[in-house]
Amino acid sequence: SETEEEKILPDIPTSADYGDDEVLFLVWDRAGWAETVRKFRDITADEITGEAINDTVFNRNLKIEDAYKVKIGLERVPDNTIVKTINTEITAGETNYDVVYPRLNEASSLFTGAQLHNLHKVNYIDLTKPWWDQNCVESLTTKGYLPCAASALNVNDKDATAALAFNKTIASNNQLEDLYTLVREGKWTYDKLSTLAEAAYQDLNGDGQMMPDDDLYGLLGGNDVMSCFYFGSGSRLVTHDDTGAFALTFGSERDINAATKVVEMMNQKWFMNHHTISNTDDTYYRQLFESGHGLFFWMRLDDVTNMRAGEADFGIIPTPKYEESQDAYYSMVSQHTTGLMSVPITLTGDKLSEVGMVLEALAAESHYTLIPEYIETSLKTKNSRDAESADMLDIILGNRVFDPMNVYSFANFGDAIMDAADANNKDMASLIKSKEKLVNKSIEKVLKAVSAVE
What we know:
The protein has helices at 52-68, 82-92, 108-112, 134-140, 156-159, 168-173, 179-184, 190-200, 224-232, 253-265, 282-290, 302-306, 349-368, 370-381, 387-398, 405-408, 413-422, 428-451; strands at 21-29, 70-78, 99-101, 162-167, 217-221, 238-240, 246-248, 271-273, 294-300, 314-317, 331-332, 400-401. By secondary structure, it is α/β, with parallel strands linked by helices. Strand 1 (21-29), helix 1 (52-68) and strand 2 form a beta-alpha-beta unit.
């Protein structure tokens, strides 16, 4: 933790007077999630309540509002209407909303149509500063254009980061080797997970069938395991060519082998895919783990908070590597449970500069207040069950993946990869061959659209 003298400060005025003008944020809520930690709890807070995240947000906003004489406002709309709301605003040339957070898996039309400002060019925003996620900035920039970004202003995208939990009681009963040691030694891999999951799963009632409420699985997961584990290999679907433009790069022998291996894992008896079972949701699926029906549990970090009040003794570890030799563990940020900061293209002139200054100020202040509170208190101290899990969280949050495919949905190839696991389709070479032209055409359309953005 830096001293006051060591702090990196934003390159913006320390104060301004915008006459109590409102900077209005637009976010989405999903039915059933509105009162959970998946709700955006990081933008506004009405009052001091004694809850750590809430109070840090309240004090952060109070400081920035006082320094710049602004008011920070928030409006929520259902997730299935937010893109239409933003599109309507832009089509009408209106600027009711200054900052928008469309749900990523529903927002490809906004990104492919270049209807959002290039954050590299918004006055006062400095994307090289540590309060902007550099993996996100690098991955989602194409030909110098960046429509959205993750920053310290938000914890929602951190909550959307993928990880695994493991049931300590089941691990102990099966005399499994120490998982934390495996992670630290770089030996936590697909093969190791498969071996341990195979050893732990049991048909407890002996009826010859694996059923969620009756038996013990090696890994509880969903469709997202396919993309999450694939990205955990260090491979990507879309990266950049020599000019900095998006390019489909999936298809190397290693990419295909990693994806094929995940398909094979997801079609073992010890794996439960809750998306293929009727009348289940994320809560039911999480409760299966808490009640002892799985050794491993694929989750997003919001589940660390969700399981705080439960009785399950669990630990937290990163997504496994494909092979020991890869350089690091990688953690996917789920496009289904988060949005990233964007500014509508209709915002111009002095108002755009005002919003840029306020966003930079909020993100910088959050870097020193909100994020330490989230990690050290909300995750490490209050919600995780042991010191080793705290170390694992540093690994998980240290290498996060923002693949452009998860934002732009080029020809829905990302969904095709996930569908391959459901269909037990291991012919990845044929899959990429069938989709390659469509994906490249979709990328070309995006590149043409972003070239017109100033």
